[in-house]
Amino acid sequence: MKLFARPKYFFEAIASLTILNCLLGLRVFEYPREQPRPVLSLIYLIIIYVVYCGGSLRMEEKYYANINLMKLEYILYQLLSYVIIVSVILKMLLGWWHTKHLKAAMMRIMMCEKTMNQMGLQKNYRKLYMNQIYSLTFIIIIFIVFVVVNYDGMFMEETPMHIRLIIMIAANYPLCLLYVSDASFLHWVRQVHLELIKSTRSTNDAYGIQILLSMTISFVFITSLLYYAYSIFWLNLSREVFRREMVPVVGWILFYSSKILVINHMCAMTTIEAANTGDIICELYEPSTTKEFRAEIRDFTLQLIQNPLIFTACGFFNLDHTFIHGVIGSVTTYLVILIQVGDLPSGGKSNSTSRYNETNFTISDSLFTTISYT
Fold first, then answer.
1. What is the pTM of this model?
2. Rounded CA gap, 337 and 79, in Å?
3. Where does the chain cross the membrane (predicted)?
4. How many Cα atoms within 13 Å fall on the side-chain side of residue 118?
5. What is the dihedral of CA 176, 332, 229, 78, to 10 degrees?
6. Distance (Å, rounded) from C-alpha 296 to C-alpha 347?
7. Residues of 201-228 as b/e, b for ≥16 C-beta within 10 angstroms?
8. Is 147 in contact with 138 (CB distance < 8 Å)?
9. Would you call 138 helix, strand, or coil by DSSP?
10. Which of 25, 77, 104, 315 has the most CB atoms at less than 10 Å from its CB?
């Protein structure tokens, strides 16, 4: 299929997203189509994970072993580093394990396509395909901007160029993995409606644990980044240094916040649209129609009531606007707790200078990098 050719089928419209999933190790290669290559895919998956672990652990340990952190910051730093590593391998393995759910959803969509063809209904996938290309291009540009913003404060001056390249790949690979997983979930959610309720649930089952990890990681990092921003605020820094240290932190806060907002908003809007479909069906219930037709509407309405469309993160919580409210309250609560139990000064900035004197407040892991000087 050519890049800007008009896609005829749904699987052609999502070809770019499928290729990204395969390149990041989230799915089994299929070449030709419907011919999986599990052995080659497994070898590729192992190579990716070895490169990632080598870049994120060995290189970091070798070049950043002399970094001094306060006790609470060191614990958070180590914890978040291992959380990211575990989440990466879980997303890879879960992507493989739940491939059957995605195939089941695809089969239902293809059956609907066949029915639409028999009814003479036209399908226009070009807009969907081009919007997908534009979105992926925009995200690539955003990643490049993030890399440029964080590049200066991410390495020591004596770090060789090839080591920088390896660490940059290891640092940004989890971000690509999280984005593609979230984007795949959102893309499927946007394309299904009432006739594809089962496909939506299959998609929810396939991405349930991944979305749970994504929401949990976003919550933890938003709280941690806000705490680090508070720590930087109490340092007696010049305006230029303060700007250089605060801009990356604010950027990462916006990144993780947008993940929570977009995913939950899209799920909430899809649920609302499914409910609105039931309202439209009920408007067809008129006395002028036949008894059989009215009976079908009653049965269909009962089915909608008994089987509402609800998106969940592996059953732990619903993905909707209520979850956004809960995250805001929880982040505020835990941020206050961290400030109270942490070893940050509670006085003015002048008192904090003596506490932080001759201490490099440096955080450099696979998701964010913050360096503060005194």
1. 0.58
2. 18
3. 9-29, 41-59, 79-97, 133-153, 165-189, 209-235, 247-266
4. 6
5. -60
6. 70
7. bbbbbbbbbbbbbbbebbbbbbbbbbbb
8. no
9. helix
10. 25
